[in-house]
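HUMAN: Spend a minute on the protein record below and explain its fold to me.
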Amino acid sequence: MAGENLAQIKAKIRECKQRPQVECQIGCLEDLFLRTNNYLVALEIGHLLLRYFRPDEAKGYYEQAAELAPDEETKENIKKRIQELSERKRQIPVRLNFRDLPLPSFSVSIPTECDFKRVLREAFQAAKNVGADYLVVKAGDLHRHVGGYPGHNHRMPVCCEVMRSFLRCYKGEILNEPPKGNGASLEINYDLRARKERFQKPAEGESAIAAGGMVVGIISGALLGGVPGAVIGGITGAVVGTILGKSCCSRADSNSGKEGGDDKRSSSI
């Protein structure tokens, strides 16, 4: 292959890798591979698939790259990588996508924060039950399953906020994020192997309710039993306030879903 053609292919690979979303990058590279049948493109696709926990597909592209490699040394290097991949395949974490989970039917016209939390918890449990290490959730997929999306009364900002709030309990990373922060294309990869409950910070509303409960407890305790009563009342009030804060699931936030995010009529990217 001429040096100029190889340089053009490398430039096209770089362009594909600059796409904002992983699936777009893979799709771009796959189209390029169909046009060029070049081993470098197959290698890049393999690297990207392996990075996102798709080892079987990665191996297929590595094998094609080995067949197309221009010299024996390159072929051997790629074959060694394939061998290493086969040997450690069992150690590669299993990643599932939310839309592939067999979740029970659930659909409401105007979902609340609690509805999103309920379905997300069910998804986490379902993924754990089949041995997954990671769960990838896209806001558009979650909202569609819960109900009310796409539509003029969607609750996408609430959906996205719930998804981000689960990062207080689980390690994870945001794979894709809309320019405005909230939207159907928000995608988060959750690590299901270890929770972070010991380090979880209470939500702002939970903290306020707990603090209010503590103040009320202190005042009432002081009136009834002096200093000892104030201490006991403060502790009791804080505990009760925390419980109420965590269980509070009101539909009063129905207007918040109308603000911000991607275009209301857009589908997930």
Confidence is low (pLDDT under 50) at residues 198-206, 244-269. Residues 204-247 form the longest helix (44 residues). The chain has three domains: 3-91, 95-200, 202-248.
